[in-house]
Each structure stands twice: as structure tokens, then as C-alpha cells.
Specification:
3-stranded parallel sheet, Aminoacid_DH-like_N_sf (chains A, B), histidine biosynthesis (chains A, B), Rossmann fold, homodimer, EC 3.5.4.9 (chains A, B)
Chain lengths: ~290, ~290
């Protein structure tokens, strides 16, 4: 059996960061250091790890970052206040609210309070609409990372049948719109889908965004399918059963080292673009 | 062969308008007459007919309406100015920019200049995002009309496979999101789709939103499929070949008298809701 192409997220991430370096340097020379602020509410240990990783990634590439920790008992209104202050803060280019927030908080309202021009994680409903309509908005990071993988490895999307498993606002829905805008035929499936296996068996491209470890089995796949696994479950396990999928796929993302690292790279890029946009606006207002 | 259920848009429209009557009356008593302003740029005869139909529908149900006609040579900036004035105008509850505008105008920018709270036609990218995420926004009228048909005739959507043909921002994309939010498995197909017929042949529900007369043939359909035809081509011809589809479908929308009349009813409803929202805001600010 032919081995599948490994879609190495670390390579893709390196390439994106390489492209950013020059922009960050010239912005810094102009006195603008791209700055990301992450907000973490509560003390979920995985979330702590994620925001730490994002801060490290910023510092490594010469960007500024700040982490705001809010206690679990923070109210929605208090969180919105924090976001509004960051919206106003001229030195902040990107705002990321770490998902999930404690259940008593209205996460959607918090996301939608982030100013569109600072929504570098691509979580606002307005940003989603703009992405779906191919307008100017920072694309949601994990879906954008999946598209980066596709581009880096020249995976053919046009006219292909992509089956997305999952329909969340920050993964299934946006990646479906992005694939559609690249001329794939897109099926969005989910927990209520009847005959999911049969649907997956027709896919040229499978995007797993379901949040259940080893959910997609190799025997569901069409021989030669492209498998993009956006899942990150406890113990570094993806949404696809890697071993069995590996045997059927023509290309596959490993977990870890697949979509994850590219997600962080897209976050950095969105933040740099936001800083660049800001610099351009400043120039315009000076002329 | 069993005759299919006819999804009569005139019946659905009558039902929606019946429900609106009471609200319009009580708003009028409070001194608020729901008002829709339509903007028509250029002299497309079909567009003239459409805005006239919308104005008539308003007047019949006791709503106000105003038609603004702008010449073909109107610039994007001039159109945006008109929209911004209507955004500010306290007496206007809903703004509809008749599609299509002359090709030199940036239609998307014009749509997105309409204030979200007056976007009763549901054409803004922000409104699309809000609808996709099931937030509070006026849903795009033709997709909303399709959902009304489904509800009125108790068509089972949950877990069913819906194939949408077309991916426009005001039809294919929003109806896909609405069906998805009702737990259908949704495939979005389009001009670049390979094997469209095979895809359609698997559908429990087919939504034709492709803009090509008699495009969908009866022989493509699974026996017993539900056929929702959102097309309106010259000569009152739908996107589906009605005769052959009729023989295979379990339920079908006629053209004319299908989705069209319901679209206007959803526009009236969105405008009434916008006026009601306005009245509520006024009350809040008075207390």
C-alpha cells in the first residue's frame, strides 16, 4: 500500500512565520510592535497551556503579547468591560478570548463585543459573515490553518466533494464556507446526520471537527481521501483514528503536529496584518 | 403515481400576513406605522415590477412604504449617501436595495452600508453571520420564505439530507445555514460541482437557487424528494423542470405561486419586527 502524504503542520507554520518576519521588522522600525492580548477566564489547565503557547509564539517572532487572567466568577458584563477597554486601547492590535469561558458567561456576546478590526482569532459573527462572503476580515484561525495546509501541499479542492464533520461557529461553519469559496462541493454533517459513514465514504476531502477522540474510522474513508483532522482531544488524540485512516488516505494531518501549529501561525499573521492595517491608517491620516 | 403535495406560497403568505395584522394595528395606535423604503437604481423593468409589488403589499396590510428611484449613472458613493441618510431617518424601519444594481456600483458595499437594525431584506454580511449563528438578525427573505414553507407544511428536516444548488450570498449560503441550524445535513453544490446529478439523486430535500430555467430535471430526483424552487426566471419559469419534477417529488413548490409570495410576506414581517423593536427601544428610553 502506498504511504499517504504527511501534512506536516510544523513545516507550514515555519513557512508562514518566515513570511511574517520581514513585516514585523519593518513595523517595529516604524515604532509599531504588533501586539496580541489574550484573555483567559477561569483556571482550565488546557486553556492555560494554550495561552502560554500563544504568548511564547509571539515573543519568539518579535511580537508583543499580554495575558489577562480573570477569575472564574467574572460576570459577562465584567468581561465585556475588559474587551471594550482593549477595543479602545491604541497599542493593542489583536484580542483573543480563550475558548471556552465558564458556562455562566455569554461567550457569544463576549466574542461579538470584540471590535472587527481586532478580531484576529476570527470569532465574531460579523467576521464569519465577511469571510463567508469573501470580504475583508481576519479568518477564523483553525479553519484558516486547514486552508493553509491545503495550499502548502497543493491539494486539489476545486469541484471536489468535501465532507465537514461538525458545525461549530469557529470551525465547522467557517471551514465549510472557505472550502465552498474555493469551489469545493461541501457537505456539512453533524451529530444529527443520518448515515454519516455513508456520507464520509463519498468524500474526496474529510475535515474532522467534531471534538470526539478517534471518531472517524479508516474504514469509513474512500480510498485516497484527504484527511484533515482539526480535533485536539486529551492526550494529543485527534478526531480521526490515525492508524486506520493512515492506511486509506492519500494525505493526512498528524495529531499533534498537524493543524495545531498552523492555527497559531495564522493567529500571528492576523495580528501582524491588523498592526499593518493600523499603520496604513495612520499614514493616511498623516497625509 | 401519487400526486405530490403542492406547497402553496399564497396560503403561507396569507397565514404570515394574518399574524402580522394585529401587530401592525397596535403599532399604528401607538403612532408608529411600520415603514419600508425601497431603493431602485436604474431602469430594469423586472426590478420596477418587484418594487411595485412590495409597495402594494405594504399598502394592502396597512404599512407605509416609499420608493426611491436613482438613475443608472448613480455612483457607489451617491448610493451609500442615500443609504446613510435612511439609516439616520427615525421614521424608516426597513431599507431594501433592489438587486441587481448597475454593474459599476459596488453592490456588496451598498448592502453592507445598510444598518443592521434596518436590514429587513437580510442582505448584510453581518446579518448573514448572525443568522448562521442563530443570533438576533432579520433573516434574508427568500431563504426565510423557504423555511416558512417547510414549517407550514410540516416537512421533516431533522437528519435529512438537503442539497442546495447555488451559493449566492442572498440565497444558497443563507438557506444552507438555516437548514443546517434545523439539523439537516446540508450539501452546497454549484456550477463547479462534479457529478451534480448524482449528488441531487441522494437528496431528501432539494433547494434550487441556481438562476437557470428548468435546470433541475425530474430524473435527477430521488423518488419522494421535496423540491423547493427559489428560481424566478423570465416567463415565470422556475429553476426546476416542473412537469418532470412533479412526477417524482413528494412535495413541490409551484412557480409562480411558490416561494415568491412568501418572500414578500417575510419582508413585511421583518419590517414590522423592526418597527416593533424600535417601539420597544423607545419605551425603554422613556422609563
Amino acid at each position: 500500500m502506498k504511504e499517504p502524504l504527511l501534512l506536516d503542520g510544523r513545516e507550514v507554520s515555519k513557512s508562514i512565520k518566515g513570511q511574517l518576519k520581514g513585516t514585523i521588522d519593518s513595523l517595529t522600525k516604524e515604532g509599531i510592535v504588533p501586539k496580541l492580548v489574550t484573555i483567559l477566564v477561569g483556571d482550565n489547565p488546557s486553556s492555560h497551556t494554550y495561552v502560554q503557547m500563544k504568548a511564547n509564539a509571539c515573543s519568539k517572532i518579535g511580537m508583543e503579547s499580554e495575558r489577562i487572567f480573570l477569575p472564574t466568577e467574572t460576570t459577562t458584563e465584567e468581561l465585556l468591560q475588559t474587551i471594550r477597554q482593549l477595543n479602545e486601547d491604541e497599542t493593542v492590535h489583536g484580542i483573543l478570548l480563550q475558548h471556552p469561558v465558564p458556562s455562566h458567561i455569554d461567550e457569544r456576546q463576549a466574542f461579538d463585543t470584540i471590535a472587527l478590526e481586532k478580531d484576529v482569532d476570527g470569532v465574531t459573527s460579523h467576521g464569519f459573515g465577511s469571510t463567508a462572503f469573501q470580504l475583508n476580515a481576519y479568518p477564523c484561525c483553525t479553519p484558516a490553518a486547514i486552508m493553509e495546509m491545503i495550499d502548502f501541499y497543493n491539494i486539489d479542492v476545486e469541484g471536489k466533494h468535501a465532507v465537514v464533520i461538525g458545525r461549530s461557529p469557529i470551525l465547522g461553519k467557517p471551514v465549510s464556507m472557505m472550502l465552498l469559496n474555493r469551489n469545493a462541493t461541501v457537505t456539512i454533517s453533524h451529530s444529527r446526520t443520518e448515515n454519516l459513514e455513508q456520507m464520509v465514504s463519498q468524500a474526496d476531502i474529510v475535515v474532522a471537527a467534531v471534538g470526539k477522540p478517534k471518531f472517524v474510522k479508516g474504514e469509513w474513508l474512500k480510498e485516497g481521501a484527504v484527511v484533515l483532522d482539526a480535533g485536539y482531544n486529551k492526550g494529543n488524540i485527534g478526531d480521526c483514528d490515525y492508524e486506520t485512516c493512515y492506511n486509506r488516505a492519500s494525505a493526512i494531518t498528524p495529531v499533534p503536529g498537524g493543524v495545531g501549529p498552523v492555527t497559531i501561525a495564522t493567529l500571528l499573521r492576523n495580528t501582524v496584518l491588523a498592526a499593518q492595517q493600523k499603520a496604513m491608517m495612520r499614514e493616511v491620516s498623516h497625509t
